[in-house]
Amino acid sequence: MYRKIMVPIDLAHLDLLEPSLATVADLARHYDAEICYVGVTAAQPTSVARTPEEYQQKLDAFAGERAKVHGQPVSTRTITSPDPVADLDDLLIDAIDDVGVDLVVMPTHPPSHLDALIPSHGGKVATHTDVSVFLVRPSKQ
Amino acid sequence: MANQSHDEGAQEKPSEGIPAPEGPANLIDTDYVIGQDNITASPMGINLDLHGKVFTFSSLVILFFVIITLALQDQVEPIYNGLFSFLTGNLAWFFLLAANIFVILSVVLIFTPLGKVRIGGMNATPDFSYLGWFSMLFAAGMGIGLMFYGVSEPLTHYGTAIGGTAMENGARTDWAPLGAAEGNESGAISLGMAATIFHWGLHPWGIYAVVALALALFSYNKGLPLTMRSIFYPILGERVWGWPGHVIDILAVFATLFGLATSLGLGATQASAGLGYLFGVPETNTTMVLLIMGITAVALVSILLGVDKGVQRLSQLNMVLAALLLLFVIFVGPTLLITTGIFENLVAYVVNLPALSNPFGREDANFTQGWTAFYWAWWIAWSPFVGMFIARVSRGRSVREFLIAVLLVPSVVSVIWMTAFGGTAIDQVVREGFEGVQDAALELQLFVMLGELPLTAITSFVGIVLVMVFFITSSDSGSLVIDSITAGGKVDAPKPQRIFWAIIEGAVAIALLLGGGLTALQTAVITTGLPFTLVLLAACYAIVKGLMSEPRT
Fold first, then answer.
1. CA end-to-end distance (rounded Å), chain A
2. Please, are residues B348 and B221 in contact by the beta-carbon 8 Å criterion?
3. Do B21 and A81 count as a contact with CB atoms less than 8 A apart?
4. Of B158 and B308, more confident
5. What is the pLDDT, as a whole number, of residue B68?
6. How does DSSP classify residue B536?
7. Kind of pairing, strands B38-41 and A4-9?
8. B24 near B551, Cβ under 8 Å?
9. Which of A127, B6, B223, B444 fits a 20 to 30 Å CA distance from B53?
10. Closest-CA distance of chain A to residue B493, Å
């Protein structure tokens, strides 16, 4: 049913990604799908990498590590932006078409009143694409 | 925007640690990790990621200055003023000399092979189009100033120049530039225009270019955080991550925040004067507070949209409006005078440049100290903000391209702008005998000048809109800059922090507007020009050293 799954990755906050990484691994095995890990990084040095190239290498390493866990084929894409915090949603929405995926799996926080001012990334992506989007909430334990 | 896709399947996983970057690059070898001194928290679901010391101390310093300026206005104002007179009076030569060094370095770099170095590495591609990039450079650098001083400054220098010199006890008491041009109308016009262009041409942009180039180089090419302290790495080494670096960053936050807040306050005063002149809107505190709140609210929306969709779009809008207004003045005003004047003023500028920029043995002390040194201190105090913002949007440009766009193009635009607006106003005085502009308050001079041309209501309205949009772009680019400094150089810190700083700017502006002390604090900001001159001189050394070790294409 799904051939290629896109998973936005924030290498600076990997701990928040755990639940969605487990979910995507199960989904990929079930549908025998490829997983494309997408990272959006600043053009400037960040806490993760001092250059976009270095970010790409770290993302590749991360994807390789995940491949060992779930055994499905993986690919990566690094997108740089002069203002990643503001551009994130639009860049992810563009990447869906560029990468050619049919499912997006991404973590999201529980809804809150603040969403009115700063909408959640998952919600924004879901309302701006025609592919399926699976938003994974943090586990309740 | 760079997209790269790699198939990973068979590839071996790299070992732990920081991998070497691809392609030719020359990262500085440091163990410092951006954000390592940061504090992260999530109060009430709002994510925060801040440099503990820089954020805390900057906030305390800001609070301290707001409180003492409001509470002890009569006591602190003489202190600020005394400090400022001391700086411009005794150290004018230092400001003039330093600014000359910045211009000479920038011009020389254009013509040396170092100009081939590309910001962000040999394979970097620009993040913004030429138009978008240039609009942002210009809006951040001086947009608002041109609106207010474009008419008044040429007129003032013309007036003092034609008045001639006056001596008392062996010292000049007049404010004329150089040797003045007593009774010589055309001589006074060209000296007045040369002096104005001098203050708005190569020197201010040389100051910005040095800060921006140093920051861009050390951030994009050397991998250091995008914050003021990185400039000092070649001098201080690893110590830059400790207190010496904290102090530089806190000072940059201080200058940027109070520079913005005082400009916002004074800008609201001026916008409300324009609205009063045009539409009879009452010039009360309420009007001004509403203006500041409105400007801040639009700035907030723009900040949330980000650099690309917020600041860039607004800057382009402003560029179009400013170009329309300029063309209108050129074609409806004294067209022939302006078109020939552009060339003549450029020549007058070039001819008078050596004398105007000479730091030593000047006879025109009032002009040198009261105008030139004041301007230089102001541009330098403003340079951490403008420089950091320019650096942020300049990735992918070669050093040569960068310097031409930051130094030469804005200088040419300043010549054209000053000639059109100042030339028209001088023409109104000289040929039409219309004294209205000269007699009007500073904030009204542009509108009175436009009032003598047709379609006044439309052009004045465009003028007011321009002023307000320039303030919006300053407010949101300033919030981006302050946020990144107080987040230890992180440009991807959570959004609520930008909102916080934009609101603080507006709130400080309102507090100072209502409680008094706007001009006092502006004076305090200008005094930061002295320490930042030292930072900029260090930046010159850092630029040359940094560029020498870069690959050139």
1. 31
2. no
3. no
4. B158
5. 83
6. H
7. unpaired
8. yes
9. B223
10. 7
